[in-house]
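Reopening this ticket.

The earlier resolution said the output was attached, but the attachment link was broken on my side. Pasting everything inline this time so it's all in one place.
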Amino acid sequence: MGDVMILVALRFLMLAALAAQAQPSAQVLEVQNKTDSLQVVQCWMLDNQQKVRMVILNNSSKSICETIISFGNFTRSDSFWALGDPLRPGQSVTIDHHTRGGPPPRIVIKAIMFDDGSGEGDAVALSNSIQYQRGYLQEVGRVYDLVNSFIKDLGSDPKPELLKHITILRHDLEVAESAPLGGIPDSEFWLYSGRSDARQRLAAGLHSVEARILQLIDTGSPELGKRASHYLYGYTEGLLRMRSRLSIQTGGSFPIK
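Inline output:
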């Protein structure tokens, strides 16, 4: 543990020195940090006054999977799972945030979430994030089960109903995603927001699968069943990984595969 902290400290000093050299005339911005495990190496305004750049470092012994940072009145959540891997101990990352002109009046690192489901920072921000991910998880689980049922019905000669099922599901997701969030109780806003964002992403993925299967049908591929199954399995494997990670973050029981 001591060796890890020494390496983290050395990395922080090196990054700070490099950042200072790279931005000698930049407008350095102050950041309020409500966490102990995430270190702000430097935060500055780029010369065009349209972007804030922040270098952050994980100085804990656990991997960070999400950061919640507010720039003025706008709060953004960055999921490192979406990029493929969490922010590991001693690892740094650069975050760029576009503004509407000039520096935000206030920048606050509100909270972080670790890959073991624990969190650190503002309790309200953490609660909202968990509710959002639970909503996301609900939609991922629902679509995963539906697409798996399609695969079970897929033989060597795909049924004509297969493409119709996928199209109907994608259309259902797109319509639901476009529904306004107004009128939803405040206590459920983040849950519904997570479901809405999940529908948008899941619909885009299904659209890609649908297009590939249509191409197989149009070209009269002799391996239609085999290749259609391959595309659908690839889609569900992505859903399974997403479901596993979200489940751990929200206190579920699905292991990461």
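Reporter confirms the inline version is readable. The CA atoms of residues 144 and 240 lie 7 Å apart. The radius of gyration is 22 Å.
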